[in-house]
Amino acid sequence: MQKCWLGLSVLFLVFGLSVGGYAAHKDKAAAEPNILPANKNIKINDRYSFQYEFPKKPRLGTAVLKILVYDTQSQLSEQRSSNLTILGSYDMPSMRGHHASPPQPIKTNRLGDYLFPVDLVMRGEWEIVLSFQENGQEIYSGVVLLKV
């Protein structure tokens, strides 16, 4: 009888840990970042949308991420806008913190394109985190995934 209780105790302990693991996994899934599709128009809010691309295929070295923001409430059909502040950072998920770049404002060129240089120092998977802000408040964020 004592062996039976010991067996049941172990079973409940294991089951309890797996339920806790499931709950932790569920919470982690809820906090998963918004992964952004390439070359597609992505809605930020009722007023703005954007799309991004790499003009050249990303390789080791510096790759430039180009972001085009559109004002959908403009008199003209989807006029380009550079009214938002975009913060960008990047890192390798498999080596978190070793090749990280702190969030920095992404600058625009004279055409109003946001250009973000990303230093890819190793082969592997990279993530670029974009935070769109208006009047100092974040209105949208997402992650660009790429493999070099």
Model description:
The chain folds into 2 domains: 1-32; 42-147, Immunoglobulin-like (Sandwich). The protein is of the alpha+beta class and 148 residues long. It is built from 1 helix and 10 strands, in the order αββββββββββ. The strands form 2 sheets. Strands 1, 2, 3, 4, 7 and 8 form a 6-stranded antiparallel sheet that branches. A 4-stranded antiparallel sheet has the order 6-5-9-10, with no helix packed on it. The chain has one helix at residues 2-30, and strands at 42-43, 48-53, 61-71, 79-81, 85-91, 101-105, 107-108, 114-120, 125-134, 137-147.
The top-level CATH class of the largest domain is Mainly Beta
**How many independent structural domains?**
2
Q: How many DSSP H or I helices?
A: 1
Unreliable stretches (pLDDT < 50, length at least 5) are 4-30
Taking all Cα atoms into account, the compactness measure Rg is 22 Å
Major β-sheet annotation:
6 strands, antiparallel
CATH topology of the largest domain: Immunoglobulin-like
* Beta strand count: 10
Measured distance between first and last alpha carbons:
59 Å
Rounded average pLDDT = 82
> What proportion of the residues is helical, as a percent range?
10-25%
Beta-strand percentage? Answer: 35-45%
CATH superfamily of the largest domain: Immunoglobulins
CATH architecture descriptor name of the largest domain: Sandwich
State the shape.
globular
